[in-house]
Amino acid sequence: MNWLSLLLKNIKKPAMSRLPPLKATASLILALLPCLALIWLWWWGPGWQFKQTHPLETLSARWLATVVILLLALSVVGIKIWRRLRQLEKLKLDVELNTVDPARADITRQDRYLHHWQARLQRHLGTRDYLYQRPWYLVMGNTGSGKTSLIQAGCRLTDIAAPDTLSGEDALPLHLRCWLGEKAVLIDPDGFLIDQLSPPDDPKPQLPARLWQALLAWLTENRQRQPLNGIILTVDIHRLLTDNKAQREQVIAALHLRLQDLRLTLHHHLPVYLVLTKLDRLHGFSAAFQSLDRPQRAQILGVTFSLNAQDEQRWRAELAQFWHQWMQQLNAAMPDMMLNKVDSSQRSPLFSFTRQIQGLHSYLVPLLEGLLASGGPAQPGLRGVYLTSSQQIGQMDDLFTQSAAAQYHLGPQAFPTWPVADTVPYFTHALFEEVLLAEPNLAAENRLWLSRHRHTLLTFSTVGAGVALALWTGWHAAYQKNYRAGDEVLAQAKTFLSVPPPKGEDRLGNLQLPLLNPLREATLAYGDYHQKGLLADMGLYQGAAVGPYV
Question: Which SUPFAM superfamilies match (predicted)?
Fold first, then answer.
């Protein structure tokens, strides 16, 4: 198929370059057709013969044909003008609406991309049930949370519909991307849609909220049965630890509101996987994990809660148990790592790293409480908490040392920056393979779709039961009717056999009447079978078989 696609592409390029002259030539030919028809009509029309007649021989016939040709030409021209006027009116209306509503163009741009991507997905998968062939996950996080780097490092993605392939697009930015993975579809909206923060002088302050609502509306419209199979929520560890209380509350509130939007719009329960990114920004990360080989770096660092851990006390206990065991393992491995696996310059960062991880738990619990607050029907359920490092970039920070320096009124300390080099992902590959994309059936179906489906099923079941009851009643009545007719045939046959043969000379045939009467009654017990069709008595009619036999 590759060589065929290449051949068609090579043929299409010169054809598309010559398309405007071809259109002009076609328009000229269509304009000349009425003129040529009129010339033929008045020059050769009188001699034209059809079925041994000359329909255009008379002058009135030629004038009538001329009027018909002119009306057809005017109709074609009028239709083209009407279509052009409608197109111009639509363009004018679009310009006016874009002026009144500046965000409309961005929403149209996003909708065009989503529909284009959907068409490419159908073409790529090649099946009618392409929307449900693979599970769909929404990857959401604040600006700079590292969600795109996470999914690119954790699974193989195919960009089946790059935004630059859309023809005729202007310079409007696209605020989301859809990725096709080997196991699932990943929808990656920008943090701009999650934070929904706009500068005071922004001409489109409602743009992020409307783009977000347009995305949810597209999901509910195209995947009505089960819009999503899960939510992958990313949070920047460094930002979680360094932000002040007001900033953390703002981040938590934004994520909480987006989760509530999903609950109120999609109407179904979704598992939420919280992934803490940028673990490498904590000073001492390199000293703690530099000895890991590739299989160890691919393992999972985190906790998956039990399926019944929906109440707050249960996930609190399981999270605390995981953190306690992890800190015990770090503290137990500390002496050997200090002596054998790190040099003298890395011992202090290694110790600081363990203290930062220990303090992270106190920041993580309020985050989870804020995300899961005010639960209701179809409230997203927390499935697990995981820590990752997709790529090692940026400046490191040491919250343990900074806190100690602040207590003693010392100045801030400068920490090193990751060198510009090839980075390797930590704790991402197995996370996607075994956890994030491995449980698509945990998501429930859309409650509204399920209610409509049950109502439709109940309606069809009721109608079907009524039809079945009517058919059963009709068949029962037809069966009883034919059964009684059969009894009547047997009774008349017995009567016929009990009639003695006639005695004496029967010149008028009246002596045969006692014999013929039972035969007639037996023959007509089912009615006149000559006038009965194949579906008489709902297909149970037996007169056609019994009548001739009698």
Answer: P-loop containing nucleoside triphosphate hydrolases
Q: Using an 8 Å Cβ cutoff, are 180 and 122 in contact? A: no
pLDDT of residue 6: 46
Based on DSSP, count helices (H) and strands (E) in the chain, helices before strands.
18, 8
Residue 312 has pLDDT above 50, yes or no: yes
Q: What percent of the chain has pLDDT over 90?
A: 40
Q: Cα–Cα distance between 284 and 21 in angstroms, integer?
A: 68
Question: Between vectors from CA 475 to CA 470 and to CA 480, what angle results, nearest 5°?
Answer: 130
Domain residue spans of the chain: 28-100, 104-445, 452-549
* Residue whose C-alpha is closest to residue 72's, from 90, 432, 80: 80
Phi, psi of 430, deg, nearest 5: -65, -25
CA dist 24 and 35 (Å) reads 18
The string over 377-394, giving b where at least 16 C-beta atoms fall within 10 Å of a residue's C-beta and e elsewhere, is: ebbbbbbbbbbbbbbbbe
Q: What letter represents residue 295's amino acid?
A: P
CA dist., res. 268 & res. 519, Å (int): 74
- For residue range 438-464, list pLDDT tens digits in order: 999 999 898 988 899 899 999 999 999
In whole angstroms, give the CA distance from residue 174 to residue 303: 35
Burial class (CB in 10 A: 0-12, 13-18, 19+), 199: exposed
Judged against a pLDDT cut of 80, whether residue 117 lies above it is answered with yes
Sheet holding 176-181, edge to edge: 157-158, 176-181, 185-189, 136-141, 230-236, 271-277, 381-387, 302-304
**Cβ distance 487 to 550 under 8 Å?**
no
Query: In which band, very low, low, confident or very high, does the pLDDT at 214 lie, cut at 50, 70 and 90?
Result: very high
Crossing angle of helices 399-407 and 344-371, rounded to 10° = 90
Tokens of residue 310, six digits: 């929906």
Residues 6+ apart with CB under 8 A from 332: none
Exposed, middle or buried: residue 343 (CB in 10 Å: 0-12, 13-18, 19+)? exposed
C-alpha dihedral, 299 to 303 to 309 to 313, nearest 10°: 180
Adjacent-strand bridge partners of 481: none
What backbone phi and psi angles, to 5 degrees, belong to 201?
A: -95, 15
In Å, how far from its chain's centre is CA 29? 46
Residue with tokens 């609950």: 263
| Exposed/middle/buried for residue 545 (C-beta within 10 Å: 0-12, 13-18, 19+) | exposed
Give the pLDDT score at 329.
Answer: 92
With a CB cutoff of 8 Å and minimum separation 6, the contacts of 53 are: none
Q: What is the pLDDT of residues 365-399, one digit of tens each?
A: 999 999 988 666 667 789 999 999 999 888 888 77
Comparing 139-148, 204-213, 354-363, 409-418, which segment has the lowest mean pLDDT?
409-418
Mean pLDDT of the chain: 83
Are the beta carbons of 62 and 45 closer than 8 angstroms?
Answer: yes
Q: How far is CA 209 from CA 108, 159, 189, 215, 437, in A?
A: 14, 26, 12, 10, 28
Binned at pLDDT 50, 70 and 90, residue 417 comes out as: confident
